[in-house]
Specification:
Rubrerythrin, domain 2, 77 residues
Length: 77
């Protein structure tokens, strides 16, 4: 099961639904106005590390771990 985001053009709202991947593009009823015209939209997300990024004016700091060397894959510096 996955969380999908849908947009309803009839009431101009976005809503989420938990559905199987097989059902993702099947018709769904709007949770707000009960229209049968909502379409699936691209959901965006952001991940925060919880540590402050150093501001150099040229983008985020690259002085930390990168790629899989953040500790999850077992590589060592």
């Amino acid at each position: 099961m996955a969380l999908y985001e849908y947009y309803c053009p009839d009431c101009n709202t976005k809503f989420e639904a938990i559905r199987s991947m097989k059902q993702a593009d099947e018709a769904i009823v709007c949770k707000h106005c009960e229209s049968r015209r909502p379409t699936r939209v691209l959901s965006l997300f952001a991940a925060h590390t919880g540590r402050a990024e150093m501001s150099t004016g040229s983008g985020p700091s690259t002085s930390g771990a990168g790629g899989c060397c953040g500790g999850a894959c077992g590589c060592r510096h």
